[in-house]
């Protein structure tokens, strides 16, 4: 079966809504909804196909587009390879140049449908924020950390990894209860760096696996978010084969925690995440000001420990 290569665009507004298009009458899967885009022609790069297709389909000129995910899907009559880009800047207002209906939608609460099957996992990935914070109570002290957490939640933090391996189970339970109490009014999701069973018992939204635990895990838990720390291509491939919700790849830059560790650099990070089917956060020596650079190199966003609480 031949493979059809497609450039697909997630046009994303500042409020998080994304643009969906209905397939017009006369085309296969007419009436189904999808992300705008089209076939990559011979000799085209995915990016150049994206720019051309959005000009032809929506009448817009792309100004800011970032490589994101590569998804493969088997339809009954063809195999499709979808090169997704997040598009955050464009000129002109999108309109259906081919008579297709358009609709701005929030990924977590669609009011149109049905969506083409290949796009379903993309909606879940779009529910992940650009910033993933890692707790640092061991350095800050618990009270100071909780104060910083409250401030970060007020400023928009919605995804947190509770990583406090120095604590006894009793102390972890006490801290987890306080963290969840703070996070709940904001609908922020908290993942435990540890075992799925412990995360489940503590009422966490998910679990974050160490790279060692990732490589030993036979199957991911399906009743919670599941993420993992990765440091090389083999670990990243394992995270994809288990269909985790996302991965964190590090270290991108030198860190205080592991000053002697070999860093990936932005080019090394980009090489590893190219073609990933999972959202990948960049981690290691990063600050909030690195977000644009992370997007440019294929990251879903950035993960930070010290930088999240400064």
UniProtKB/TrEMBL annotation:
- GO BP: any one term: DNA replication
Q: Is the DNA damage keyword given for this protein?
A: yes
- Residue ranges of domain Nudix hydrolase in the record: 1-130
Name the coenzymes or cofactors required: Mg(2+)
Known catalytic reactions = 8-oxo-GTP + H2O = 8-oxo-GMP + diphosphate + H(+); 8-oxo-dGTP + H2O = 8-oxo-dGMP + diphosphate + H(+)
Please state what class of enzyme this protein is.
hydrolase
**Record-level Gene Ontology MF annotations:** 8-oxo-7,8-dihydrodeoxyguanosine triphosphate pyrophosphatase activity; 8-oxo-7,8-dihydroguanosine triphosphate pyrophosphatase activity; 8-oxo-dGDP phosphatase activity; 8-oxo-GDP phosphatase activity; metal ion binding
Annotated 8-oxo-dGTP binding lies at: 23, 34-37, 119
Q: Report the InterPro entries cross-referenced here.
A: Aldolase_TIM (IPR013785), Mutator_MutT (IPR003561), MutT-like (IPR047127), Nudix_hydrolase (IPR020476), NUDIX_hydrolase-like_dom_sf (IPR015797), NUDIX_hydrolase_CS (IPR020084), NUDIX_hydrolase_dom (IPR000086), ThiamineP_synth_sf (IPR036206)
Sequence positions that bind Mg(2+): 37, 57
- Keywords (A to Z) from UniProt: DNA damage, DNA repair, DNA replication, Hydrolase, Magnesium, Metal-binding, Mutator protein
Enzyme Commission code: 3.6.1.55
- Top-rank taxon, per record: Bacteria
Q: Which CDD domains match?
A: NUDIX_MutT_NudA_like (cd03425), TMP_TenI (cd00564)
A Pfam family of this chain: NUDIX
Q: Which NCBIfam families match?
A: mutt (TIGR00586), PRK08999.1 (NF006530)
Q: Which family does it belong to?
A: Belongs to the Nudix hydrolase family.
The protein's name: 8-oxo-dGTP diphosphatase
């Amino acid at each position: 079966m031949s493979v059809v290569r497609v450039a697909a665009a997630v046009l994303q507004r500042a409020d998080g809504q994304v643009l969906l298009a209905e397939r017009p009458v006369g085309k296969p899967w007419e009436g189904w909804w999808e992300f705008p885009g089209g076939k990559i022609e011979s000799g085209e790069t995915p990016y150049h196909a994206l720019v051309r297709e959005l000009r032809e389909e929506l009448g817009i000129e792309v100004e800011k587009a970032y490589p994101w995910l590569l998804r493969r899907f088997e339809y009954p009559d063809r195999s499709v390879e979808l090169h997704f880009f997040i598009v955050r800047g464009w000129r002109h207002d999108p309109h259906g140049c081919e008579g297709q209906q358009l609709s701005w939608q929030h990924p977590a609460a669609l009011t149109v449908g049905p969506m083409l099957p290949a796009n379903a996992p993309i909606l879940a990935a779009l529910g992940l924020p650009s910033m993933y914070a890692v707790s640092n109570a061991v350095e800050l002290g618990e009270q100071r950390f909780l104060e910083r957490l409250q401030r970060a939640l007020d400023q928009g933090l919605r995804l947190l990894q509770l990583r406090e391996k120095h604590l006894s189970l009793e102390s972890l339970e006490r801290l987890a209860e306080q963290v969840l109490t703070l996070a709940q009014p904001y609908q922020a999701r908290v993942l435990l760096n540890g075992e799925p069973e412990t995360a489940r018992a503590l009422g966490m939204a998910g679990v974050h696996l160490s790279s060692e635990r990732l490589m030993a895990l036979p199957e991911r838990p399906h009743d919670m978010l599941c993420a993992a720390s990765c440091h090389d291509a083999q670990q990243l491939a394992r995270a994809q084969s288990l269909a985790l919700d996302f991965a964190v790849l590090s270290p991108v830059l030198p860190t205080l925690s592991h000053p002697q560790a070999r860093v990936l650099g932005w080019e090394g990070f980009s090489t590893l995440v190219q073609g990933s089917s999972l959202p990948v956060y960049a981690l290691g020596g990063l600050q909030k000001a690195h977000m644009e650079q992370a997007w440019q190199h294929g990251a879903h966003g950035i993960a930070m420990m010290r930088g999240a609480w400064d």
